[in-house]
Every structure is written in structure tokens, then in C-alpha cells.
Task: inverse folding
């Protein structure tokens, strides 16, 4: 018996201006609570696919379902993190994290515990009253992550969230993300993560399944399930199994490039 | 000894520069031997200031002019802001309306003002209307610019969070556009003084600083002309300062970066 997929994409194609075909015949299903990463060359339409799942775009043809409904109709709003932190510069760190709760109509008092818990989770409880301009890139991105989780979304969409960070910060953010994802699972609030990334090792390290796309138009060319044990540790990246996965993903991208 | 001028605080710099200016003015007039009705010295102007304050004329005319400036600025803001919002949100409205708006700006307000006095019978309201016209455009342009500068990624974020249009306006567009709108208000505030004065020139009916200026000029009371000009400058500076204070209050986050 298999649970119904949480994200279901059927024969999805997307073109812009009626001409440029960005995505072609995408089929995808992601079970609830899974961590899925999407890799591929730039121009493969990865961000477009993410925006379609977020309900920010309407499919040209085909179908996107989140929890069985078109995403823009899904009752529960999603959590989303972009490559840029996209914090509101006029709001403090605290008020930025509070935004999703505010939009749901929760009062300051009602949301306080939750906001503080999230700031602690991303290690920024000391910065609640700072403004985004006073934060480093890594800190700002952690605030963005806390904001994306504030309203307890069942779906977390990450569009190259660590792309603008240096390698060290990036690695630490990846581990923090896993830690948060695990914590949510244990709290009986399974959270499904769909993440676009440029980094193949990062994609393998984080994911239950890596989806590989090719460009022009964007198609899915490979699904690589990652059977590495959880919780994952940095040391695992040196293991031959890990390297084998990275090589497999890289090979399927390169095979396309050299056709 | 004295620290270099550059490192002095503003409250030292401004009085010093003012004093130097007045001294320069005084010696220019006294050494040049100019007639008082050609170029009065600072002392003549101070004497005249004293006179018109004592007989209550300055205050009366200033009050009249200020009571035209403030509604002019306020109504201008009230009309320009929603219209600017509409233009920024609706490409159709922009294409329909903006050619007329731009054309209207090609005609100097001093040329339209006489028409307004024909259409608007009330002396007071015709003057306010001229102020509105002058204030309107810079505020409108900045509202449009402010709205255009709202980052599209933040719109995406708000949509992903299923925000209502009211929430998008209240929590994103308003705070995001505010700095640029306030910059427009700053320009509008100083222009509103010019607007009210132009209105008074066209309708110089026995009241207002514009009336005082025109009569002073006809009577060759050049020192009184100076008094009026300085008063106008003070009004403009006060309005400008008020907007700056408003900015400091509303945009506290900007000083923290």
C-alpha cells in the first residue's frame, strides 16, 4: 500500500509568450514528508517548476496538484525561500518571521511563542530587534528560513536558498535545514521539502531523491533515489556510497550535455 | 585652537555661514553705496521686519498664505497618491491618462492660473487650486516610481503566503513605496509655497504675502520685498523640515542600516 503523493505533477508543459517552451512533459510525484532536490544546468526551468508548484504560475498544459488540489487553491499556504533572502527591510528580524502569522490574522501575543521558538531554532534569538541590513548573508537567509516555517506549512519550497552564500556557510545551512526537517518530522508535522540547487553534492547530501533535469526545454532525465542512512553527517560525504551517488547524478547531466 | 570646519557639527556650521553671509551683504551694500530702494542692507531689512511685525501686517498676511499652502499641499497629496497608485497598477490607465498629465506639465502653471481665476470664483480656492496643481505632479511621479520599485520577489512571497490584496497593499506596497513617496512630498512641500504665491499674484486681492510683495514693489519698498522673500523662505524651510521629521519617524529602519 502506498500513500497518495503529496506533490503530483502530470504531463506538465510550460511556455512563455506562447512560444519559448521552458518545461516539457514533466511527471513527478513526491510522497508526504519527503526531501526532494532538483538539479540541472541553468536554463533547465528549475525555478519555473518550483513557481508552478508554489501556484505562482498557471501551467500552460498539464496539471500540478499539492495535497490533491491545484496549489493556488490549497488551503494551507506554503513556505518559500528564494535565492535572495527577500526580507522586508523595514521590518525587524522578529517582525519578518512573524509576517506569515500576521497574514493569517494572529495577534502579536498569539504569535510570540512561535516566533521566538523559530528564532531559537535558526540560532538568531539574540537578533530579534535587528533590521535585515544589519545581518550577514547567512544570517539573513536563516531568518528567511524561519519565516518560511512560521505558519507551519506542510510544504517547503526552496529555490537555491544557499546559492548566494559562501561554501562554509552553505554547508552549515544545509545541516541546519536537515536538523529542522527532522525536528518537524518528530513533532508529527511532516514537512515535505522541494529544493532547487546547483550543487550536486548538496543535492545528494540532503535528499531522499534527486531529480535531474536537462535544458531547452526542461525535461526530467533521471530520478536518483538516495538510500544513505539518516541522520546524515558531514563525514558521510567522504564515503564511497556518497561519491557514487554524486557521480551518478553528474553523469546523467553530462551525458546530455555531450550529445 | 579651532578644529577644521569640516568636522564641526551642523549647529555650528549654519549660524557661522549665516553670519558670514550677512556680513558680506552688509559690506557689499555700504561699500557699494547702493540706494535703499535698489538694494537694502541687512539692517534696513531687520528694521522693516520689526515694523511689519509690530503693526501685525506680517503675521496677518503670513497666516493667509499658510492657510492656502497647507490645504494645497494636502489636497495635492490626496489626489496624487491614489492616482499614482492607479497608474502604477493599471497599464491601461497609464496609457490613457499619462499623455495628458505630461502635456499639462509642459504648460507653465503661471499660464493656467488666470484661467482658474475665471472658473473658480472664490479668491481663496482659486489660490489653493494653483498650489494643488504645482504640488500634484512631483508627488504623483514619486508615487508611481515608489510603486515600480516594490521588488517583484516580495510580491511572489506575498502571493505564496496567500495574502489578500489589502494585505499586499498594507504590508508590502505602502511601506515599500513610502521612502520614495516621502521624497516626492519633500519636493511638493517646497513647491506648494511657490504655488500659493503664483495664485496670489494672479489674484492679488488685499491679502496674503503675494499681495504684500506686489504692493511693496509698486511702492519701491525694496526692504519690505526682502522681508516677504525671507518669510517665504522660512515657510518653505519649515515645511521641508516637517517632512524630514516625518521621514525620520516613519523610516526609522533606514537609519539602522
Result:
Amino acid at each position: 500500500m502506498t500513500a497518495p503523493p503529496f506533490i503530483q505533477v502530470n504531463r506538465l508543459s510550460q511556455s512563455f509568450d506562447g512560444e519559448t517552451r521552458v518545461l516539457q512533459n514533466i511527471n513527478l510525484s513526491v510522497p508526504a514528508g519527503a526531501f526532494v532536490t532538483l538539479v540541472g544546468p541553468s536554463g533547465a526551468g528549475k525555478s519555473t517548476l518550483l513557481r508552478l508548484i508554489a501556484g505562482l504560475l498557471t501551467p500552460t498544459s498539464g496539471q500540478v496538484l499539492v495535497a490533491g488540489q491545484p496549489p493556488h487553491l490549497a488551503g494551507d499556504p506554503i513556505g518559500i525561500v528564494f535565492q535572495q533572502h527577500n526580507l522586508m527591510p523595514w521590518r525587524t528580524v522578529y517582525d519578518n518571521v512573524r509576517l506569515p502569522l500576521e497574514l493569517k490574522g494572529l495577534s502579536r501575543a498569539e504569535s510570540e511563542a512561535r516566533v521566538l521558538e523559530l528564532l531559537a531554532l535558526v540560532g538568531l534569538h539574540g537578533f530579534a530587534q535587528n533590521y535585515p541590513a544589519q545581518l550577514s548573508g547567512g544570517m539573513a537567509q536563516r531568518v528567511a528560513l524561519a519565516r518560511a516555517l512560521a505558519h507551519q506549512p506542510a510544504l517547503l519550497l526552496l529555490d537555491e536558498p544557499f546559492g548566494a552564500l559562501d561554501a562554509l556557510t552553505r554547508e552549515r545551512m544545509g545541516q541546519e535545514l536537515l536538523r529542522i526537517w527532522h525536528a518537524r518530522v518528530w513533532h508529527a508535522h511532516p514537512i515535505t521539502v522541494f529544493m532547487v540547487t546547483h550543487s550536486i553534492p548538496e543535492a545528494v547530501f540532503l535528499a531522499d531523491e534527486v531529480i535531474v533535469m536537462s535544458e531547452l526545454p526542461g525535461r526530467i532525465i533521471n530520478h536518483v533515489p538516495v538510500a544513505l542512512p539518516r541522520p546524515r553527517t558531514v563525514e558521510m560525504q567522504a564515503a564511497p556510497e556518497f561519491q557514487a551517488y554524486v557521480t551518478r547524478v553528474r553523469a546523467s547531466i553530462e551525458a546530455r550535455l555531450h550529445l | 585652537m579651532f578644529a577644521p570646519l569640516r568636522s564641526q557639527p551642523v549647529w555650528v556650521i549654519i549660524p557661522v555661514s549665516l553670519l558670514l553671509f550677512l556680513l558680506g551683504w552688509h559690506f557689499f551694500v555700504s561699500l557699494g553705496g547702493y540706494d535703499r530702494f535698489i538694494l537694502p542692507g541687512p539692517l534696513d531689512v531687520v528694521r522693516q521686519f520689526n515694523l511689519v511685525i509690530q503693526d501685525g501686517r506680517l503675521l496677518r498676511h503670513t497666516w493667509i498664505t499658510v492657510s492656502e499652502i497647507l490645504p494645497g499641499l494636502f489636497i495635492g497629496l490626496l489626489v496624487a497618491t491614489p492616482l499614482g497608485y492607479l497608474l502604477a497598477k493599471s497599464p491601461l490607465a497609464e496609457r490613457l491618462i499619462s499623455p495628458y498629465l505630461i502635456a499639462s506639465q509642459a504648460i507653465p502653471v503661471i499660464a493656467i492660473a488666470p484661467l482658474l481665476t475665471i472658473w473658480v470664483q472664490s479668491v481663496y480656492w482659486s489660490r489653493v487650486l494653483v498650489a494643488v496643481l504645482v504640488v500634484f505632479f512631483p508627488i504623483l511621479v514619486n508615487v508611481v516610481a515608489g510603486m515600480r520599485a516594490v521588488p517583484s520577489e516580495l510580491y511572489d512571497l506575498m502571493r505564496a503566503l496567500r495574502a489578500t490584496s489589502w494585505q499586499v497593499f498594507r504590508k508590502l506596497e505602502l511601506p515599500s513605496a513610502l521612502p520614495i513617496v516621502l521624497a516626492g512630498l519633500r519636493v511638493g512641500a517646497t513647491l506648494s509655497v511657490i504655488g500659493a504665491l503664483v495664485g496670489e499674484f494672479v489674484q492679488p486681492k488685499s491679502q496674503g504675502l503675494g499681495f504684500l510683495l506686489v504692493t511693496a514693489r509698486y511702492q519701491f519698498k525694496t526692504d519690505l520685498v526682502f522681508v516677504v522673500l525671507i518669510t517665504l523662505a522660512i515657510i518653505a524651510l519649515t515645511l521641508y523640515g516637517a517632512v524630514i521629521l516625518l521621514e525620520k519617524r516613519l523610516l526609522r529602519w533606514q537609519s539602522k542600516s
Observations:
- Chain B has one domain: 65-256.
